[in-house]
Amino acid sequence: MAKPVVIVLSIIALNVFYTAFAFGPIPLQDFCVADPTSSTRVNGLPCKDPATVQADDFFFSGLHLPGNTTNPFGAALTPVTVTQVPGLNTLGLSIARLDFAASGFIPPHTHPRATEILVVLEGSLEVGFITTNPGYKNFNKVLEKGDVFVVPLGLVHYQRSVGTGNTVAIAALNGQNPGIIAVPSAVFGAEPAINSDYLAKAFLLDKKIVEELQAKF
Amino acid sequence: MAKPVVIVLSIIALNVFYTAFAFGPIPLQDFCVADPTSSTRVNGLPCKDPATVQADDFFFSGLHLPGNTTNPFGAALTPVTVTQVPGLNTLGLSIARLDFAASGFIPPHTHPRATEILVVLEGSLEVGFITTNPGYKNFNKVLEKGDVFVVPLGLVHYQRSVGTGNTVAIAALNGQNPGIIAVPSAVFGAEPAINSDYLAKAFLLDKKIVEELQAKF
Amino acid sequence: MAKPVVIVLSIIALNVFYTAFAFGPIPLQDFCVADPTSSTRVNGLPCKDPATVQADDFFFSGLHLPGNTTNPFGAALTPVTVTQVPGLNTLGLSIARLDFAASGFIPPHTHPRATEILVVLEGSLEVGFITTNPGYKNFNKVLEKGDVFVVPLGLVHYQRSVGTGNTVAIAALNGQNPGIIAVPSAVFGAEPAINSDYLAKAFLLDKKIVEELQAKF
Amino acid sequence: MAKPVVIVLSIIALNVFYTAFAFGPIPLQDFCVADPTSSTRVNGLPCKDPATVQADDFFFSGLHLPGNTTNPFGAALTPVTVTQVPGLNTLGLSIARLDFAASGFIPPHTHPRATEILVVLEGSLEVGFITTNPGYKNFNKVLEKGDVFVVPLGLVHYQRSVGTGNTVAIAALNGQNPGIIAVPSAVFGAEPAINSDYLAKAFLLDKKIVEELQAKF
Amino acid sequence: MAKPVVIVLSIIALNVFYTAFAFGPIPLQDFCVADPTSSTRVNGLPCKDPATVQADDFFFSGLHLPGNTTNPFGAALTPVTVTQVPGLNTLGLSIARLDFAASGFIPPHTHPRATEILVVLEGSLEVGFITTNPGYKNFNKVLEKGDVFVVPLGLVHYQRSVGTGNTVAIAALNGQNPGIIAVPSAVFGAEPAINSDYLAKAFLLDKKIVEELQAKF
Amino acid sequence: MAKPVVIVLSIIALNVFYTAFAFGPIPLQDFCVADPTSSTRVNGLPCKDPATVQADDFFFSGLHLPGNTTNPFGAALTPVTVTQVPGLNTLGLSIARLDFAASGFIPPHTHPRATEILVVLEGSLEVGFITTNPGYKNFNKVLEKGDVFVVPLGLVHYQRSVGTGNTVAIAALNGQNPGIIAVPSAVFGAEPAINSDYLAKAFLLDKKIVEELQAKF
């Protein structure tokens, strides 16, 4: 069972790799559409010639299409960030579609560079975030169709389908590249691996279990 | 015909009055949930006692419900900003639902404190924004179901239904209170009225027409 | 009568094209003087070699010279932004001179990326801005010599000479490239044109009048 | 063995509760020293009367004293944030002392509102952070006396003593209240508890183990 | 000769005390007019009830009036900051008038929270700023009527009249309360006095001279 | 005596030239490690290919080594800014070691782009900063081992050893390149020299003494 999980995790990780989310700068011109052909690298992305900018640079198509949830998570993320829409560069905003099969979920994660607001379009979704001050308190709700919930900047949060059918949500994040850190993958799937003795102590787990997790992630 | 328009404009204006949108600060704590009972006024809003904060402070219900488009605009805006969700305070984000009957529209407007990203859930919507550099160029698209479009910070933009049925969209803005300035109302509906000779010259309109507009708005 | 207006509007638009205004970032070095020869494009502008920077990079001459107000507006704008003074890059500030003949005016406009403060040096100038929250309220003053007025970020505002002679003002904006959106030009002069049925409904104007305006702007 | 861990975790959590860290705003005055007696709550903290401000408001004593590492972590954190030094309010900076006994560690954690730089004063400390783009890559170093390492904003990172004696480090964070989210506590120690079926699937652990962890944390 | 200097320095210092300048936050509403009656203190200033805000809150009169230059500096500063114009609160901008008699000057100073742009209205003014990277390089110009010069954020700069008559300039700063640190007063006029042995060594001056300076400032 | 001073000042100035400090932007990606080989210049620094980034890009070694205080200041500064650690780019933070022999000192200076927090590791150090509002008030403390002090953004401050032995401190600044302006060098050592008549009047010094200082610095 571990192998398929690893593969799918890698797919999602790759997906996120090329599509990560955001919060942002103050634009200094009407727009600064990201130039995919530039070899220069800056905070954010360099811009293309304004004279060549088209409406299509601010456009994305396909957010009505369900993501493929046939994977161990029973979930799919369709991001619309600066990677998909170059016109988002410098503008500090992105959007995404979340799909969940029954019992689908997204692992506990943080967005290091964005607050998130999400609205459920169909199904039932439990969403919760954990604060540290007040300490390790879980603010959570079961969201039904039309419900909205907010996750403050950088906090650990989770989403899991609690309905019997498919669940769909739209999430907006105030960053062009908000980032997503899936906690289990970051902790147990890091390359090179984090010392297993350390993880065993930090998570109060047997070292053997930690090493199994590290093999799986 | 002018009277009903005036009334509806007032309703929408009032609606916006209490619900205006945003872009934002950097949070200095996990959250700073707006305290509606505070008499202190600051940039943004003062916060309530963290010990009394509930998950409901980050929650809103009802975005699945169509807005009432039985008005001269044939359109409705259902905002979810810091006014509706006090937990959005300091977090720089908001969301809204847009409903359009056939031929419904939102007048040309700007958000002085936010970039906007919107996704069409059903129907057909033309969206365009006008840049000033390059000068007075109209970047526009007709969006179908699942299409996404971005409107950069502060630019004049417009939305009009171009389908035969209802159109629904979700818009996200990177501000807790982004503001909405409907250009016709701001120009012709300002109180006290802007000098009509001036408006006639600025808009290349007969003064009489300007004064009629000022009576209507 | 339409033709000269169009021409002059184009001149001013072009002027603004190459001279747009601003609000801004946080500088990360003593200065980052814009390099006009760089082919790289970023948020703001790339910098020239600090070793080649001169005092002249922070200098502009000629703000004592009246602008040419022999145009349908009876007004002229002399901007001093990052386009004129490359040393302003990353520093979030610009300045401009405004000249008005008797009855001269600047159409209703916004600066999408700056607050404005202006001081009248001679003549009489009515200045007003319209807020949306409180809704469509016109905060306006007639300014005489030595009077100062502030226009908050992104709000629609107007300036019109109300004296019998020339009026001169200095305006400062907290952006290196604040932008200027002349509302009539953005709405009726956009290229490609905004749908005239839509504009007719949004402005409560006859479609024929809208199309005449679109021909003029 | 579980019990003492729980207690110590609580102590540390409480400690963090009242002392959490940060990144920040732009000060609008020379200083805005936090007023502990104010009942008003804002983003950051309200300020005391400048006339009553003393040098002591910018002062803290005791960072030479080793923290008590006689706990299951073998580690101690002595924070100097806006909670300890009210003069840090609005200034976007804080500092802390870290103590480790041999084999001491701090669990994987993030600072949601700060970048961290740390310098080792004595001993040997492995520090690593995990990026998501590139995906789940572990950037880590073993730091000896005089070594410095940087952890970018919001990323998961870990610290563990790898020497045979005590290890001491000074960490600076660019926030007055950077926050600290210990991943194991946030995930397994949240109150109310996160659904154990969900955690089991997300972490690829037996539900029974998850429930044991939830009992421990 | 020392006595009058001390008095005038005090007057200017007091003037600055109550009128200090700025750079700033991002406004979260159309305006947040400073409320002088509030006893709450925050970063910037608390706001008054929007319903009571008037156009006068954004207005200042008198910048055409020469300041009184009959003082040892032969110079006068008339600031228009948030202290004079409460509507500037949260908007990150201020303006000032500078008057110089022949040979008048402003001592070397910095604005800790603003970039400055200034335009000479009449007379001749030498302005220079010193960078540290490149190191201790003096970027300076003699400005005549209509000339504009920029001083980057936080750098030491100086202004001295070099004409035979009066000199007048308008300066804009991108802060509501930019602050002004006159270097000689800060160094030699601090209360309590900075150790004179230290100042003697730092400035390569005789301790006796330092103590004379400290008596004068 | 002047010659050696000049030389050492130059050494320190050069040191600062290549090592200047900071406050900062908001990162738009996990990291943006400065690329020393890039010929492009931007606000901050362009980034290297993320695929080539190593842990060493976030690492610095040697802060345990005393700086060489055999100079007229009896002090040494060992900076760790974006110049030494390219991984600090866009992250808004830096650190430094300060060494003082008995009676060693750092001249009055400002950091134009950072707040500073420092902790004394050994010895005795007087630190003070001067505010302008309240006006020219000296907030100062003698710091012993383990004491911490904060210097707000942009304010003039000083550090002088008051112990009989060596003094060591660690300072953190919330900027990748905070800048350091040594007041005596900026005022009396600027190139080209500031007019000596002006400096004499501004500092209430004999012109002859000013010219001697200018020869020394």
TrEMBL record, chains A, B, C, D, E, F:
Which PROSITE patterns does its entry note? GERMIN
Q: Which domain of life is it from?
A: Eukaryota
What positions does the entry give for oxalate binding?
H111, E116
- What InterPro entries does this protein map onto? Cupin_1 (IPR006045), Germin (IPR001929), Germin_Mn-BS (IPR019780), RmlC-like_jellyroll (IPR014710), RmlC_Cupin_sf (IPR011051)
Instruction: Cite the CDD domains for this sequence.
Output: cupin_OxOx (cd02241)
Please state where this protein is localized.
Secreted, Extracellular space, Apoplast
One GO MF term, please? Answer: manganese ion binding
Q: What is this protein called?
A: Germin-like protein
Which PANTHER family does the UniProt entry name for this protein? Answer: GERMIN-LIKE PROTEIN SUBFAMILY 3 MEMBER 3
Please report the organism this UniProt entry assigns to the protein.
Sesamum alatum
